[in-house]
Amino acid sequence: MIRARKVAPRRGTISSDMDQIGEPSQNKNLEGFGYLLTATEVFGVLLIILVIVWTTCYRDGFAWSSYPKQQFNWHPLLMTIGLVFLYANAMLIYRSQRTVRKRRLKLLHAGMMIFSLLLTIIALVAVFDSHNLNKPEPIPNMYSLHSWVGLTSVILFCCQWVAGCVSFLYPGIQSQLRAVYMPVHVYFGTAGFIGVIASCLLGLNEKAIFAVSNYSDFPPEGILVNVIGVVLIVFGGLTVYLSSQHRYKRLPRPEDDILLTGASD
């Protein structure tokens, strides 16, 4: 009698894919994601470099309270690094790190957000100090649309972080409540990021009008500020696109409900 041999599934088949990534369609509909993500990171790094060039070459570099005008320069740089670049990467981490366990992603997401908040606090101290210590007389605080939109975005960012930690990192919260809150968290996270981009654009325009001489004559500094604004828009647009496209969403894995117990490691 001829016995049928049990043939192991070949590498690359559905069964093998399930063993490797935990689900049969983790890579489904990801066309173009890698290129878009790379472009987003390139524009993000370029944005930071351009802000460093601007503040160093045209705004006399960095200092602290002894030189208020140079102290101000920490504000655009740290805001760009923390509340723009890190915020964007924290939003995208669930999609860029698709095969990392959800528990670790949550901790990374929260950690990136708290580091972003720390840089934001330093940036706010820098701008308030530079205004209050300005000579011969202080510069008024919180009078511009830039400051109103920026502070609103920062407050929303803080509320999002607290609510996210309680909802997604506290083990006692039921999974049904997490599922209900998730769309709210995603919406306000995106709304806060858009507010940050808007605030940065308002701040760039305000600084260019008040500080760049002959701005209407296309001086090099004015052109650089405009280029920073355009790169900021492109970076923000790519981030929102990648974070909002359902086809790029990280598909659920069997261990996603296990958060902090370590049982799935």
Please characterize this protein's 3D structure:
The protein has 265 residues and is mostly helical. The protein has eight helices and no strands. The protein has helices at 14-21, 33-58, 68-72, 74-96, 102-132, 145-169, 175-211, 220-244. The longest helix is centred in the C-terminal third of the chain and has 37 residues, at 175-211. Residues 6-26 and 259-265 have low confidence and may be disordered.
Distance N to C terminus:
46 Å
Residues in helices, as a percent range: 55-70%
Total count of helical runs of at least 4 residues: 8
Quaternary structure type:
single chain
Report the principal-axis shape: globular
* Derived structural class: mainly alpha
Helix and strand succession?
HHHHHHHH
* Count of strand segments: 0
Radius of gyration equals 23 Å
Q: Mean pLDDT score, rounded?
A: 84
Strand content: under 5%
Major beta-sheet overview = none
**Regions with little confidence, pLDDT below 50 for 5+ residues:** 6-26, 259-265
Helices and strands in order:
Elements: H1 14-21, H2 33-58, H3 68-72, H4 74-96, H5 102-132, H6 145-169, H7 175-211, H8 220-244
Helix pairs in contact: 2-4, 2-8, 4-5, 4-7, 4-8, 5-6, 6-7, 7-8
Summarize the entry for a quick read.
This protein is an all-alpha fold and 265 residues long. Helix content is 68%, strand content 0%.
Key descriptive features of the protein:
single chain; about 260 residues; mainly alpha; 8 helices; about 70% helix
